[in-house]
């Protein structure tokens, strides 16, 4: 037996020696000949690989004389090469990966890379970050990956609990334009009424697009309305769908929160799990179809056990339950010659359950025979989101021509359960269909581009036109969801009264636009871009905007870039026509509120003018630096001034001498409306990105520091002549603070990403700056005897700066299977606590900074075949 074992041992050693027989060595450099320390050299089809040392030198023993080496380095194109029996293999990598990739946004020149544009463009590799982050949806992935992007899950905010509002640089969710493969994406039909972010705004539901279908996301951090049209005040987010073929990828993800503040003592809650599959099929020689199926489910979290019972106004405070299913595709088929037929789009279905505020047993809105312990209404959502684009593109006499049509649709159905209609008495039903709203958008466009190599050092000419139609509807719920049957008690479904026939709306509008964009390399060092756009809206008229940008190359490693522009945003149809009656809570007390449409009896009596467009002035100036092949730095300062910003006003009481009688006749206690209340918002700040790569031991360390420093100032309040002197009521200091809190004044990401062989580690620290909000003590009497009001220290909730720490470990078991295990916010950090009955959301903290769920631990298994 011993001899057999010794023979097997010697044989295995001989086979191993044979397998490692061929030695390959060389150097990895960039285009200038500088060494690339930390470059990865891997034998294709195996786990055999090495890392270049500080001088770019590598040595690797391979199995075969015809082995193929794959050489990669962050910020550079990979190279695959068969060694063909040669032991010396040197590699020169081109600086042309995601950091230097041709982008859709920022420039219409198809030869222009992201580092050559006159405005900053972030390129976010979704496939890469999904293996290193526990987040499963696009909003949360970007929240923790891009400092200038901010999105917090809302709670106790009706519809906003189901569609996460998001923004760039602290501006409104509706001041960022979203594109899919360069085509305008439709907005959500939801207008945010409550919550800490985007109040009064309509944004785009990024979570309707599955992350598994996305190749990369391009974020243009600059005003671009002159190039792309309405909404592009803060910037443009372009989502590029996958095109890969002959490859099947699948992922299974699961994660759970550490439940620190649950009253029932459970240690964990909020189970998240996700499964997705992506497959690409080649069509003919150059065509493809890529399909993604995705399912995501998220359970409730509850963080209500933070204070004594008398201060708790919500027994269920946390994330809603969500079930999300999506099917997306991206396809292109050659038609004839160089003409291509392309199409992409998808369907997303989402069902959600979010808890409303608690009705305690002795609350007048409760019926003890139905709910002897009080009740927590559940607001349900059924969201249908669909989009499809089809087009033709090709080349005719050196002109690139692209004609396409995009249709998008978003429908939001509300339901209410675990509730009642108080006016129905003990026989009230407990479930209701509450109605909802929907938005349809159709966009047809025709674009021409041509590059003239012989003019200057190159001139790119682009022009085109666009025709867009929109249709917005509000549809009623079932009668018990909104009707008052006894005119004594409060009518409608508790938690979310349904839409009545009076609320029904069916409105349309159209607009036509035309643009021209000239981009010239005047010299080998200076590039200048000039763009102009005209648009005509059927509901408010014409607008003309322009942009001038430049990039000056000091040398091969340093450049200065900048731009100035004007922009605009047309008020959304939801802002113009949304109307409802709902219950608001002030100091934990219910108040009936009428939200009137813009052109109605209430607004006309008060002299409120029709909504008009927001206009903007943008300026940016930055520098890009590459001191060495391993280090790159970009610094970009920006300035954005928005005039006549549309907001949701404060609430006017039925005790007001000017509006009181009208409100009483409508049986509501208070009323509010949309108007161009803010004369201006001025935002300025700086974005900083520092990236460094180096060899460390036997591995490669990539370090990235990304920061956004941001400040906003608000101008005067625009009131009508009939409301002169009521500026505080029109748009109070409390509402102003919500606008200012759209982004923390600073957000800094420091990421260390270390890879050795098949093992990688990611450690990330995210610092969220201090945020302040005003609570419900504002304007209230503190001492009834003296009439003393609460002081700023009493009504200001300060959320001090906090740091979140994330850690992920990933191991590639083979070329087909990888596993990631990690945690987000592993130190279980929360925003500072405040009194739940005084906050906007009814919990110990409002949705700010890293959010209020605490530590999240996850695992992910990825398959690739």
From TrEMBL:
* Name the record gives this protein: TonB-dependent receptor
Location of the protein in the cell? Cell outer membrane
Instruction: Tell me which species this is from.
Output: Dyadobacter luteus
Q: Which PROSITE patterns match?
A: TONB_DEPENDENT_REC_3 (PS52016)
Instruction: State the family it belongs to.
Output: Belongs to the TonB-dependent receptor family.
| UniProt keywords, alphabetically | Cell outer membrane, Membrane, Receptor, Signal, TonB box, Transmembrane, Transmembrane beta strand, Transport
User: Cross-referenced InterPro entries, in alphabetical order?
Assistant: Beta-barrel_TonB, Beta-barrel_TonB_sf, CarboxyPept-like_regulatory, Plug_dom, Plug_dom_sf, TonB-dep_rcpt-like
Source organism superkingdom: Bacteria
UniProt entry tagged with the keyword Transit peptide:
no
* Alphabetical list of SUPFAM superfamilies matching this protein: Carboxypeptidase regulatory domain-like, Porins
